[in-house]
């Protein structure tokens, strides 16, 4: 199965009249990175959540966001008296020093974080179990997303590799004509030189054959075909992570295509080489998003 590194998943649960929401986003990246945004109640569980998400998603740039929504419970609401006195004293002192006219200091202080709070109803094992279940559901959601997108990517990769194989086969009719043309060109250019410098005819013919052999692209064609088959086999394998291995195979594919292009010395073959390179670039772009 092919998995995309890009995905989005979410889930929510209710606990003690509050709604716990979990969102997980992932993007393709060369390295593995995870950012967590958690309520104060769950921050002591951050390492557990990080490990859970990393084990499930394996690679990419990930964001885990947990939010808690709910109507404030008046019975659990409290005023932090020490903080209130501290802010009141400091604000009064500043108002006197700066000669600020009388204002509603009380409302200003009440807006300061931590002056008004609620007893933490989520700091218990039951709340953690609910959160853990919600995170697991969000992971299932994002993995479904990544699997669906992975199938789309897989179909496109197969299309690109088949296009490379098709262009490779299209080269064959031009090969024999190409070799004959190169031979004729060499003979024409060398005839005068041979007569003028009294070059040994046998040695001359050996050098011509050696040069022609150096331009032979049959080995590169065979290797390129094998790399394409290997790519398709790896695409169908059961490995969890395939992106890096497939990228390595595309490097080998690119090497053979470049060598064919360098040896070809034929405009018709070069056209097919250009088309293979174009398909290879599209292949690489898609592989950058595969786990």
Can you walk through the features of this model?
- With 291 residues, this protein is an alpha+beta fold.
- It folds into three domains: 7-72 and 124-145, Ribosomal Protein S5, domain 2 (2-Layer Sandwich), CATH 3.30.230; 74-117, no CATH class; 148-287, no CATH class.
- It has helices at residues 46-57, 81-98, 105-110, 125-197, 201-214, 218-235, 243-264, 267-287, and strands at 7-15, 18-27, 33-37, 61-69, 77-79, 116-118.
- The chain has a four-stranded mixed β-sheet. Strands 5-6 form a two-stranded antiparallel sheet.
- Strand 1 and strand 2 (18-27) form a beta hairpin.
- Helix 6 (218-235) runs antiparallel to helix 7 (243-264).
- The N and C termini lie close together (10 Å).
Helix content: 55-70%
Strand content: 5-15%
- How many distinct helices? 8
Number of β-strand runs: 6
Number of domains: 3
Spans of at least 5 consecutive residues whose pLDDT stays below 50 are none
**H and E string:** EEEHEEHHEHHHHH
Strand order of the largest sheet: 1-2-4-3
Gyration radius from CA atoms, angstroms: 34 Å
Features of the shown structure:
single chain, 291 residues, alpha+beta, Ribosomal Protein S5, domain 2, 3 domains, 4-stranded mixed β-sheet, two-stranded antiparallel sheet, 8 helices, 6 strands
What can be said about this structure in brief?
The protein has 291 residues and is α+β, with helices and mostly antiparallel strands. Helices cover 63% and strands 13% of the residues.
